Structures are given as structure tokens and as C-alpha cells.
Amino acid sequence: MYINSTGYYVPSQRVDNNYFLNINGLTDEWIVKRTGIRSRSKAASDESQNTMAFNAVNDAIAGLPYDIKDVDLIVSASYSIYDTVATVAHEVQRRFGIDGAKAVCATSACSSFVNGLEIIEGYFATGKAKRALIVCSEHNTYYANETDAKCGHLWGDAAVAFFLSAAAETDNDSEIRSIYTCGLGNISKGPEGVRLRPKEDGITMPDGKDVFIHACRYMIEALDKAGEAAGGIKTVDLDHIICHQANMRIVANVARQLKLPENHFLNNITELGNTGSASAPLVFAQQRDTLRKGENVGVTVFGGGYSNGAFIVTV
Questions:
Q1: Most exposed of 249, 250, 284, 309 (fewest Cβ within 10 Å)?
Q2: How does pLDDT run across 197-220, given as a tens digit for each residue?
Q3: Domain spanning 174-314, CATH architecture
Q4: pTM for this one?
């Protein structure tokens, strides 16, 4: 499976840590020490999950080696759903006039994007699709409760889009060597670890410590599993690693466990906050032009629910 083009959209608005002092009593120093976040992206009042998705797709079209109307599968992957019936996949199909394509939605907390990739892999394997578009748009601030001192200060907004094909389209394509996902709903806090209940209290994280502990463990496990499936690539031999951008302390902990320098890891959380399931693929899309041909990149995620996933890309 090959990545033909990537694009992304990040709202221009930034909310710095000082904003939260009068909202939930947290200081800039406290937030930076515990999360590594200094600011977070926030969609404007006239933006939505859909508009961010459209912008990400438009950004990706610029590098697309074929007509977008040749796409025969559209997958939207996220958890901050704006409309549970007319999904982002259907909205994108309509906006860009992609006639005849299948349109589906995948949601599995912050592993949603990787689960979406695995769905595409299945369609490709059965011959039911040849070219696909996956769009991940997270409008976290639409649901976030800023007064919540446990997690109200974490969330950012962003969207990312990948065009993919079953066979290589050009010499510039990056190859996805393997994809691994696993549901972990039976582990520890599981579904109660992170919740989004719109009619109750929005996004909540009742026990951040539990999320931290299991994210550190299961992101490494996912990388190991994906590396094994990619022909035995060892995690320590990856040229770059991108973790789900939930907390810089999690990234630092993973680096220590793997005995790798922190500059081995690519991140954007300091500026953008936790952009949910868009975060890790967003880092890849932002950094893709700086990566050297032939480098191996491991992208690994952990989501509330719980769930994990990873994929290995050869640029």
C-alpha cells in the first residue's frame, strides 16, 4: 500500500497556557511541566470538522498524481464527530464530486486513523478498491470543557488527509510496509479512561495516570508488532518515530524505554496540543518533505477506550 500524497490543515488561532489561569487555575509552568504543551490550535467560530477536512484534502490535492475523481474509497477516521449520519467521508465525497466511491467512517479513539488505514488495506486486498482517501479531522475544542483541570487544557484542532493506492503511482510514493491495531477495552480503566459524551460533560479523562501508564506500554508494543510484520524491522533501527501527541512526558518515557535520544522522535504537541487521532499522521504530513528517501518511519498511537496501533512507512 502506497501513500501518493498528504495534506493537512491547522487552524491559525493559538491559545497559550496563560489563558487557563483564570479558567481552571492552572499556570503556564504547571502545564508545561506535566504535558510539554505551550499553546494549542483552536478552530475559529466559522470552522468545523468538515471545513478542516476540506482544507486538508485541498492541501493534499496539490501533490496528487491522478484526478481525485479516480478515488474509489473514502474513509473518515476520528472521534470528535460533528454528524453521526452525514459523516466527513460523505461530506468530502459531495464537496469534491467523487462519484461512485464507497464512503465509510472509522472511530476508535486516538487510534482511529490507523484503524482507518487497516480498513483501506482490507479493501485493497480484496480488490474492492484501488485508490483511497483517508481524512482525519478532530474538532476537540467543540467538545472540550476548558474549566476541567484534568484535561480541559490539552486539546487542539487539526485535520490531515492521505491519498493511498494499492500499487505505486510514482517514484515519490512512500510505502506503508505494515499496519497493526488492537482493541484494549478489557485493559484496566478501558472505556472509562477517556470519554466523549456530548450531552453530559464533553471530553473527559478521569484518570490521566492510568492513560499515561498504558500509553507508554502499548505504543511500544504496537511498534514492535508492526515492525515484525514489516519484515522484522526493529524499533530501535527506525530512522524516526512518531508517537500519538498526547503528552511530551509520554514521548520521553517511550524514548527512555527504547534507549533512544528524544530527537529521534518527531513532535508537534508543544505548539498544537493534543489534536487527537489526527496528531501522529499530522506530524508525518508536516515532516514528509524533510524525510530522506528510503528512511523507515514508525507511527504509533494509543487511544482511550483503550486501543493501540502502529504502521511502518518507508519514505
A1: 249
A2: 988 888 999 888 999 999 999 999
A3: 3-Layer(aba) Sandwich (3.40)
A4: 0.96
